[in-house]
Each structure stands twice: as structure tokens, then as C-alpha cells.
Design goal:
Chain lengths: ~375, ~150
């Protein structure tokens, strides 16, 4: 009888508290949004399932939980806390990204820079709300709308916040169709949304090969702390463009990025154990994350309007919203909002140019914040 | 510590301003360099032409670069109608071809939005991949259509 009672007292049913139940509900919501609504399924499904796994109550000391040093989940989590998975994800992203549209219209890169203003406004907001500088930097990077970058910087500056920051970053990326269009419509008038972008010039093979080499040197010389992200990103792109390593590029953009995404999502989800995750700080992070993402979107749109004051050939200001680095979600949203006004207006390729510069911009920001805050 | 006092104490204003300036200047420099890249490449390519040699490319556009297809003023929206306009291009290239060949020809002939159109052709299975980057055309001919109607 004692044995049975001891067994029962070690089951999840006995050990569960309300925080586990709340997190399991959140995980189930992620699974529902990912599978039924197709909102970023490649991210939300691993994270959602990870939340379920991480919130099964267990008897501490058995080496089961992600925060217990000898558990399997802990070993898998190693890739998150060291910044390994984000770096690998960037390799795959580089091997997927086509920079032709950006090279054809380099001025659009400024919109990618403008959208990073959300990061620095949020840094101020987080400091003002009482977060410590390293925590504030980690929260601010959510404004870059780049999950791997957010996880990478948080792992370096405030590892105890990886769970809430990653969940906030990926949640807002999944909610792009909800968050961005109202801001775009609010800040633009119909005439601006109707602006058509000219056909892009053709970019030569040589230009596409040289770009990743030039890009890595210019960006990493400026912000060396972004080497782990931009180094692999541009390397992946070079594999894609050089024309003689197609097999490697193919592996990077399929098997390698998929493997990293699976383990990244699962372990980030599992790191949201109710007792660790459900704190006042997490609520603050979610609030600031939404602010960061909204300011980033607005900054891009407003900057495009400012550029139009000086440019002869006007830019559709909707493109500014694609300056956040949520690839390709925000570019798709810009295209759809443009087409809602004029079905024959094709903004997708231009929006992808802003999107890819947003990836570069947010990785530079991560490097800058890391350099600024590492010593504090 | 909260509010403006916390921002000032942790050097927040300076970090935000310096960070914004650095990322802006970085991307401005990168955009300037890539905007000049094709010009620099052109200079190098011109230098490759030996002294005393005639340049390979004349300044005058070769006749085959001129558009030879007249497009309707109102470009159709139906994908099959668009495909019929592309048909002469495909016949010119041959049975199998690279997408880049079709893209270049459509640009030379001033087809609107060739990139998006080719993507739509692929999604509608009008362009079929034969592997190794080679594609073939799969639009039923008018005769086939008639046979289908009659059959």
C-alpha cells in the first residue's frame, strides 16, 4: 500500500499545480494555431509541443527537467543557451535567401535599418520599467522580430529570460497578420498604398556571388559581436550563390535548418516550466514585446514616408513594415495590404528586399547590444 | 530604480542613440557599396578586353534583343491567356529550357511582372520541372482544348 501511495505521489496528477495547467493551455493554443490556423506552423508546433513536455510535473532530482543538469532535455537545451541553434538556423536562412531584389534596389535597405528603431525605443522602455540593463537589451531585441536573434542575444545576456523572450518573439511573429496591417493602414493613406514599384533590374551572377563576401566583411567589421549570426548567414548565402556547392546549400536549407529548428523549438518550449515562466517579469516582457514589434513596424512605414519627401521615384510606404526581419511573413502581409487596394500592385519582391535587410539589421543590433551590455 | 532616472543611470539614452546610429550607418554603407557593385564589375570587365582588341559587345543593341512580340494593351489576367502570350517565347527557346532563359526573353519583350508570372506558371503546372533546373512547357494546345471540348 505504501509503495502504491509513493508511486501515486510521484505522478504528474499529484504534483501538478495551476501554473502547469495554465502553461499546458498555452501550449495547446500554440498547437491549435500552428496546426489548425497554419500560423507559423514550423515554429509554433515544436514550441507548443515543447511547452506540453516541459510542463508535465515531475519529481525533482530524477534528472528529468530541462533545468536539471543531467537530463536529456538539458543536453538538448545546450544548443540554445550557447547560441548554437540560432547560428545554425542563420546558416540555413542564408542558403535560402535571395538577395537579388535587395541588390537591385539597395535604397530599400534603409527601411530595414529604420525598422530596427523599435529595438532601441524598447530598450529605453524596459530600462524605465525597472528591468536590469542586460534584461532590457534582451527584451528590446524582440523588436527585431527575429526569433533566433532574440534567443541568441538573450542566451548571452539574460539566459534566465530565454523562455519568455522566445515565446514572446515567436508569438508576435505568428501574429503578424493581426498586428501589422492595422498599423500600416493607420499610418498611410490610400494614395500612398496605391504607389506602384518599378520592375527590378536584373542582378548578375557575379554581383550575387560577391555580395555575401562584402556583406560579412562590412557588417562584422562594424559589429564583430554579430559574427556568430552574420558569419553563418552570409556563408550560407555564398554556398547558394557560388554555383559549385549546391549540394551543401541544399543540405543547409533543408536538413540542417530543420534539425536546428526542431530542437530549438522543442527545448525553448520545454524551458517554459510554469514555476519558472509565470512571473511578473514575463507579463512585462510580453507587453514590451508587443510595443517593440509595433514601434518597429511604425518606424519602417514612417521612415519610408520621410524618404518620399526627398525621392523623385516614390516608394510605397507599406514596404517599411517589411523592414522587420520576420521572413517572409511581414513581406507577405505588405503584399496583401497593397493588393487589397490595387490587385495588380505587386509589392512582394520589393518587400522581400526590406525583409532581408531587416535580418541583417537585427543581427547587427544584437551584436551592438551584446557589446554595449556585456560588461554591465 | 524606474523611469527616466533608471534610463539615465544605466546610460540608456547614449546606448539607444549610438546603437541606432551604428546600425543605420552600417546599412547605409552596405547599401552604397552594393549600389556601386555592378558599376565596379563593369569597369573590371571592360579592363579584361585586351589592348587593341575590339570590344566584344557593341554599343548598339543586337537585333535579337529587341522585342518581337506585340502585347495587347490590356494584359490578360487569366493564367491560360497569359500562357498563350508566352507560347511564342517557349517555341523560340526549345522544348526544354532554364527558367532564366524564359525570364530574360520575357523581359526583352516587355512582359509585365515576368518573375511573378513564371511563379504562377509553376504553381499552375504550366511549367514542369524536369530536374536539374530544366523546365518544359505543359500548356495544352488549342487543338487539345478543342479535342477536350469535343470529347
Amino acid at each position: 500500500m505504501d509503495l502504491l501511495f509513493q508511486f501515486l505521489s510521484n505522478t504528474g496528477y499529484y504534483l501538478a499545480d495551476y501554473r502547469n495547467v495554465i502553461m499546458i493551455a498555452v501550449g495547446s493554443l500554440f498547437l491549435y494555431l500552428g496546426s489548425a490556423k497554419s500560423y507559423e506552423p514550423l515554429l509554433l508546433i515544436p514550441i507548443g509541443f515543447g511547452i506540453l513536455v516541459g510542463n508535465v510535473p515531475f519529481f525533482k532530482g530524477f534528472g528529468l527537467g530541462i533545468y536539471e543538469s543531467n537530463s536529456v532535455l538539458h543536453y538538448l537545451y545546450f544548443g540554445v543557451v550557447t547560441g548554437l541553434y540560432p547560428s545554425i538556423v542563420f546558416l540555413g536562412l542564408g542558403a535560402m535567401t535571395d538577395f537579388s531584389s535587395l541588390m537591385a534596389r539597395p535604397v530599400l535597405m534603409l527601411l530595414g535599418a529604420a525598422a530596427q528603431m523599435g529595438i532601441f525605443f524598447t530598450l529605453l522602455g524596459a530600462l524605465g520599467l525597472g528591468f536590469l540593463p542586460k534584461e532590457a537589451g534582451s527584451i528590446a531585441i524582440i523588436g527585431g522580430a527575429d526569433g533566433p536573434t532574440s534567443i541568441f542575444l538573450t542566451a548571452k545576456l539574460a539566459p534566465h529570460l530565454i523562455g519568455p523572450i522566445a515565446i514572446a518573439a515567436y508569438s508576435y511573429m505568428a501574429l503578424i497578420p493581426v498586428i501589422q496591417p492595422p498599423i500600416m493602414r493607420l499610418l498611410t493613406n490610400r494614395k500612398e498604398r496605391l504607389i506602384r514599384m518599378p520592375e527590378l533590374r536584373e542582378v548578375s551572377k557575379k554581383e550575387r556571388i560577391i555580395f555575401p563576401a562584402v556583406g560579412v566583411l562590412l557588417c562584422c567589421f562594424l559589429a564583430p559581436a554579430s559574427i556568430p549570426l552574420l558569419g553563418t548567414f552570409f556563408f550560407g548565402n555564398f554556398l547558394k550563390e557560388c554555383g559549385v556547392t549546391e549540394r551543401l546549400a541544399q543540405t543547409a536549407r533543408t536538413a540542417i535548418i530543420d534539425t536546428a529548428t526542431i530542437f530549438l523549438g522543442l527545448t525553448v518550449g520545454a524551458s517554459t516550466q510554469g514555476d519558472v515562466f509565470l512571473t511578473g517579469k514575463s507579463v512585462g516582457i510580453f507587453f514590451l514585446g508587443a510595443v517593440a514589434f509595433s514601434i518597429a513596424t511604425a518606424s519602417g512605414v514612417i521612415f519610408a514616408k520621410i524618404m518620399n519627401l526627398f525621392l523623385k521615384e516614390k516608394i510605397n510606404p507599406l514596404l517599411g513594415a517589411a523592414g522587420v526581419s520576420a521572413v517572409p511573413g511581414s513581406a507577405r502581409e505588405v503584399h496583401l495590404v497593397g493588393q487589397a487596394e490595387d490587385p495588380e500592385n505587386y509589392l512582394l519582391m520589393h518587400a522581400m528586399a526590406c525583409n532581408s535587410s531587416g535580418v541583417i539589421g537585427s543581427a547587427i543590433c544584437a551584436g551592438i547590444l551584446w557589446s554595449f551590455l556585456v560588461g554591465l | 530604480m524606474y523611469g527616466l532616472q533608471a534610463i539615465a543611470a544605466y546610460n540608456g539614452w547614449a546606448m539607444a542613440l549610438a546603437g541606432a546610429l551604428i546600425v543605420f550607418s552600417g546599412l547605409v554603407i552596405l547599401s552604397f557599396v552594393i549600389s556601386q557593385l555592378h558599376k565596379i564589375l563593369n569597369i573590371f570587365e571592360k579592363k579584361h578586353v585586351g589592348v587593341g582588341q575590339e570590344p566584344e559587345m557593341s554599343d548598339v543593341e543586337p537585333p535579337e534583343d529587341k522585342p518581337w512580340i506585340s502585347l495587347p494593351k490590356q494584359f490578360p489576367t487569366d493564367i491560360k491567356e497569359v500562357a498563350r502570350l508566352y507560347k511564342p517565347l517557349v517555341e523560340e527557346i526549345g522544348e526544354t529550357f532554364y527558367l532564366s532563359q524564359l525570364y530574360e526573353m520575357s523581359k526583352k519583350n516587355n512582359f509585365p511582372h515576368p518573375h511573378i508570372t513564371l511563379t504562377a506558371f509553376r504553381e499552375s503546372n504550366i511549367l514542369i520541372s524536369d530536374g536539374d533546373g530544366v523546365f518544359s512547357w505543359n500548356l495544352p494546345t488549342e487543338n487539345d482544348d478543342n479535342e477536350n471540348v469535343e470529347g
